[in-house]
Design goal:
Blueprint (H helix, E strand, L loop, with lengths): L2 H7 E8 L5 H12 L21 H13 L2 E6 L2 E6 L8 H8 L4 E7 L6 H12 L4 E6 L8 H12 L2 E4 L1 E4 L7 E4 L4 E4 L11 E3 L6 H7 L2 H15 L5 H5 L3 E6 L8 H11 L6 E2 L4 E2 L7 E9 L8 E9 L2 E2 L4 E3 L4 E3 L5 E2 L6 E2 L2 E2 L4 E6 L8 E3 L16 E7 L5 H14 L3 E4 L6 E5 L2 H15 L3 E5 L4 E7 L2 H9 L5 E3 L5 E5 L2 H10 L3 E4 L12 H5 L1
The structure holds guanosine-5',3'-tetraphosphate (G4P).
The site of guanosine-5',3'-tetraphosphate has 19 residues, from α2.
Length: 538
């Protein structure tokens, strides 16, 4: 098969949601359709349930599941589908943010009872930074949820994106009768607990078809009214707008009842983009370029502390990746080769000989790779768009065993390369500040420093709640700004200055008082990296 055909065939995406909206259930149903698994229950929930603060092994065991299910690959209708899994727990949200840099599109699951929840909003901000195309699946229609029109308003408002229903529910909860497919003009009747069969689907030419009344009774008139309203209120759906990330098509269904999932998958395959060009610091890299390139977006430590090797997840962006072929590790400026790269077909790890754009492969690594690293066939460039996101919780790292401080330094540096935490160093007293998005990450850090590096430490709370990277056109003004705020300035591992603030109010007033300084909410401040609108406004 030619490279172009391999690319055309692939769809690489992530399913994201607030915990409990139904991400795991939907993933499983999609895999069942594709034959990726044979029975329900095969996909372990990637949920991390906090049992006790000290129960690290439990967390780690649960995190272990995420390695196994990090990528799920299956074939369906001539397509090769890569679903990238994301941790549901918000304390590991940074992992999710980074995974989103490796996909070409996203399916967002919403619980129809709860509507748009906090975590959904944040994930959506990350999608919008890169204009990632999003399809929304409103789940749990078998429950009494919010009115569909109300949900549409909330989606548009809270997700800050235009929405366009492609299907429409007929009632909800106990009275849920089915979904009208606005795209194909057919009615799909609901039977609880059953998988879909063809006779449950009614193809109609016009909404005036009397079979609608026969099937729906008095609800037929309400459906006609709803459809008229929808066609009047929403612009016609255009695939280009969806692919540009300007409009999110919306589907309704019930993942648990396997209802609406086939429509979702089929429409997804019709409209979702294949692997696209990616931006590097030198030029745009098209997927069909003959020379291989790819980047690392996730690193997972080996769960066995006796082995230091880690697994780096690499997204192939162009050309063909080949086993044992030497590739340029751009940051190190030397060639590396991988003798056992593997893929994740049908839940199993298989050693592969080659991989194509859109594929995600696992590479064994002894500490050479870090998040954001680019591999190429010889050309020197680095992929953009794999930023660090502003952490929200901060602790000072204090060694409690001066004899082991070297190990502590090494440990925290390696853990930050793995993406477990972000490390900032202050000039005053070389104070080390660790930033995360969730408390659980501190448990992980303390445990791993102690068990893998033999370095005991204390993590002391700091009053900061926000960090932003700062730049200025005039370097003298930046120096002046940092000099007067030594205690609020740290430097990331690339020595970029970061400003810590103690409250949202303080951040806003500092921003207003210093228009000469630019504040950035991700570590990547090229002209392409758009600041999340609500982050800027909050
Ligand atoms: P998550 O990965 O987004 O966190 O959600 P998950 O799929 O684990 O689903 C969360 C809960 O919602 C599960 O129930 C699941 O069975 C239920 N659920 C998913 N889809 C639907 C749906 O269409 N309708 C209804 N009524 N429920 C749905 P649980 O009790 O937490 O877990 P379990 O014991 O069923 O596994």
């Amino acid at each position: 098969m030619t490279l172009t055909k391999e690319i055309e065939k692939r769809r690489t995406f992530a399913i994201i949601s607030h915990p409990d909206a139904g991400k795991t259930t939907l993933t499983e149903k999609l895999l069942l359709f594709g034959g990726g698994i044979r029975e329900a229950g095969a996909v372990k929930s990637n949920k991390i349930r906090k049992t006790a603060v000290s129960d690290f092994m439990e967390i780690e065991k649960q995190r272990g599941i995420s390695v196994a299910t990090a990528v799920m690959t299956f074939e369906y209708n001539g397509h090769l589908i890569n679903i990238l899994d994301t941790p549901g727990h918000k304390d590991f949200a940074e992992d999710t943010y980074r995974t989103l840099t490796a996909v070409d599109s996203v399916i967002l699951v919403i619980d129809c009872v709860k509507g748009v929840e906090e975590q959904t909003q944040r994930l959506m901000q990350v999608c919008r930074m890169r204009d990632t195309p999003v399809i929304v699946f409103v789940n749990k229609l078998d429950r009494e949820g919010r009115r569909p029109l109300e949900l549409m308003d909330e989606l548009a408002d809270k997700l800050d994106i235009a929405v366009r229903p492609l299907s429409w529910p007929i009632n909800m909860g106990r009275h849920f009768k089915g979904v009208f497919n606005l795209h194909e003009n057919n009615l799909h009747l609901f039977r609880a607990g059953k998988t879909q069969v063809e006779q449950d689907r009614l193809l109609i030419e016009t909404l005036e078809d009397p079979r609608l009344d026969a099937q729906l009774g008095s609800d037929a008139a309400a459906l006609r009214e709803d459809v008229e309203l929808i066609e009047g209120v929403f612009d016609p759906f255009r695939v280009e707008d969806y692919r540009a990330g300007h409009v999110a098509p919306v589907f309704f269904g019930s993942a648990l009842n396997n209802f609406g999932v086939r429509e979702l998958l089929q429409t997804f395959l019709r409209i979702a983009p294949p692997p696209a060009a990616r931006v590097s610091d030198r030029r745009e890299i098209a997927p069909d370029e003959q020379e291989f390139s790819g980047f690392v977006f996730k690193i997972h430590a080996n769960l066995d502390p006796r082995h230091r090797d880690r697994i780096a997840f690499l997204r192939v962006c162009s050309g063909t990746f080949r086993r044992d072929k030497p590739f340029l590790h751009v940051r190190h400026g030397r060639h590396v080769r991988f003798s056992t790269p593997y893929s994740f077909m049908a839940q199993r790890k298989n050693v592969i000989d080659e991989a194509f754009p859109g594929d995600v492969i696992g590479l064994y690594d002894r500490g050479d790779l870090k998040i954001g690293d680019t591999l190429t066939e010889g050309e020197s460039f680095t992929f953009q768009g794999i930023p660090a996101f502003a952490p929200e919780i901060f602790r000072e790292l204090i060694s409690t065993d001066p004899m082991r401080s070297k190990q502590l330094e090494k440990g925290i540096r390696e853990l930050s390369e793995e993406g477990v935490a972000q490390l900032f160093t202050q000039e005053v007293g070389q104070r080390k500040i660790i930033g995360t998005v969730g408390e659980l990450q501190f448990d992980v850090i303390r445990y791993r420093l102690e068990h893998e590096y033999g370095a005991a430490c204390r993590l002391e709370s700091l009053a900061f709640n926000r960090a932003c990277w700062i730049t200025a056109e005039n370097p003298a003004r930046l120096r002046e700004f940092t000099r007067f705020r030594e205690r609020q300035i740290g430097y990331d591992r690339d020595h970029n200055p970061v400003y810590f603030s103690e409250s949202e109010w303080m951040l806003q007033s500092t921003m207003q008082a210093h228009p000469e300084i630019s504040f950035h909410f991700t570590s990547e401040f090229t002209s392409r990296a758009r600041q999340p609108r609500s982050a800027a406004a909050s």
